[in-house]
Amino acid sequence: MKQNHSNHLFQLVLATFFISTSGVLGRYIAMPSEVIIWFRSAFAVVFLYAFCKYRKIDLRIKSLKHYLPFIIGGIFMAAHWVTYFYALKLSNVAIGMLSLYTFPVMLAFLEPLFLKVKFNPMHIVLGILVLIGLYILSPEFSLESSSIQGILFGLLSALCYSIRILILKQYVTQYNGVMLMLYQTIIISICLFPVLFFMDISGFESQFPYILMLALLTTAIGHSLMVHSLQFFSASTASIISSVQPIFGIILAFFFLNEVPTLNTVFGGSLILTTVVIESIRSKKK
Fold it and tell me: Where is the EamA domain (predicted)?
């Protein structure tokens, strides 16, 4: 049993690591964010479909009522990925990923609006801690600052991701997670297809290996492994462990992009990640 637990824990940490490569790849690939996300999604569709057929996963949508939530969820997922990559390119991997990781606290604020749950005043305290963390990340507030623009895009990405989670939350128990991810990438590919006609895609050949890595390693393998790992851990445990994603991302950025985090990034990021861990522990106790 201990061996099985160790294997499952290793898979969850590995999934977290693979997903964290999105930061370095998103900043490194020299193409417009919308174009990167289209190729990421289109390639991921192929990998995920092949995996679903191999594992004989049912791809049928059970009700006509589910089509609209799936489509809306996919649109918000597209917005989440595009704005996240804007955040990475405008600032750096550390600021982009840490800004995105405000989503668990956003989720706590939005949940009472979407679902029939009572608002908890403790979330106000956590929200204030996140705001302090964001202020420390970039204390000089100026919309002309690329760091501030990166933070704002990161926050917008977190908001889109939170809404997408809340929209699809009620369907997670009814459908296989990899199947849901497949449909999300199909919808994203359809939504962003027009960008291929009016945005620069000339760098595709030189960037192909990195786009392929983003689609296969980060999206298809990383997310599928994460979904598989969730069978063996509670959502709160998984979210606590996955909160090391920005740390993995910052380490990878240091080695591959020579990005050294400032003291402000370390202190502000630590505060943001602390609120994530606190909220995850609290949700587990509830």
Answer: 10-137, 150-278
Using an 8 Å Cβ cutoff, are 261 and 94 in contact?
A: yes
Do the Cβ atoms of 174 and 65 come closer than 8 Å?
no
* Parts of the chain with a pLDDT under 70: 1-3, 5, 139, 141, 230, 234-237, 239, 280, 282-286
- Give per-residue pLDDT as tens, 252-272: 999 999 999 888 888 988 988
- pLDDT (tens digit per residue) in 191-208: 999 999 999 998 899 999
Q: What is the CA radius of gyration of the chain?
A: 18
State the average pLDDT for the chain.
87
Whether the model pTM is above 0.70: yes
Q: Which residues contact 204 (CB under 8 A, 6 or more apart)?
A: 31, 39, 211
Helices (H), ranges, the chain: 2-28, 33-54, 67-90, 93-100, 103-114, 122-137, 146-168, 177-192, 195-198, 204-213, 223-229, 235-242, 245-256, 263-285
Instruction: Using DSSP, state whether 180 is helix, strand or coil.
Output: helix
Both tokens assigned to 178 = 């990899």
3-state secondary structure of 234: coil
